[in-house]
User: Which sequence fits this backbone?
């Protein structure tokens, strides 16, 4: 009997805040609130809002930087040994989450030598992820096709000798 795999995934982010108000004169009370949320769902496939696999790992970034080759069968090279759930070459990046697990130090995310320029564009683009912070991006229509050694690398650099980073991404 053959086994069929079907991918279903979602990226959900929510920012919610409340401000309780109390007035000393007259005892008036109330609450102001704000909420912004967004969900991107992905089903199995290679069209818009679809993905065929994922990669998830944890590694230690250094001041010299770690190159993450998104289309490679071994995305972290010497920095880790996790592998994607399927072939990434020729697919598109659909979603990515990068978390900085350090309580004190930041990391910088930039295109690698063969950078993901359709996402991080410009001459020398960088995104700083502060201590305890996270970077989340979704691309339901997908970015440019990921090609190992051509246009799929991220460079993640720590501002100190070692910062633990978690990364997860969907492709399809």
Assistant:
């Amino acid at each position: 009997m053959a086994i069929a795999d079907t991918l279903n995934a979602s990226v959900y982010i929510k920012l919610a805040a409340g401000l309780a108000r109390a007035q000393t004169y007259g005892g008036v009370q109330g609450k102001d609130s704000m909420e912004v949320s967004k969900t991107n769902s992905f089903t199995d496939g290679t069209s818009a809002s679809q993905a065929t696999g994922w990669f998830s790992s944890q590694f230690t970034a250094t001041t010299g930087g770690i190159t993450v080759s998104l289309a490679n069968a071994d995305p972290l090279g010497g920095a880790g040994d996790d592998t994607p759930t399927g072939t990434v070459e020729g697919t598109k990046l659909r979603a990515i989450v990068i978390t900085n697990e350090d309580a004190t130090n930041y990391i910088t995310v930039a295109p690698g030598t063969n950078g993901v320029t359709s996402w991080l564009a410009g001459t020398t683009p960088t995104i700083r992820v502060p201590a305890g912070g996270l970077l989340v991006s979704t691309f339901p229509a997908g970015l440019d096709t990921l090609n190992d050694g051509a246009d799929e690398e991220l460079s993640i650099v720590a501002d100190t000798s070692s910062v633990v980073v978690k990364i997860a991404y969907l492709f399809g």
Notes: The CA atoms of residues 17 and 34 lie 5 Å apart. The two ends are 26 Å apart (CA to CA).
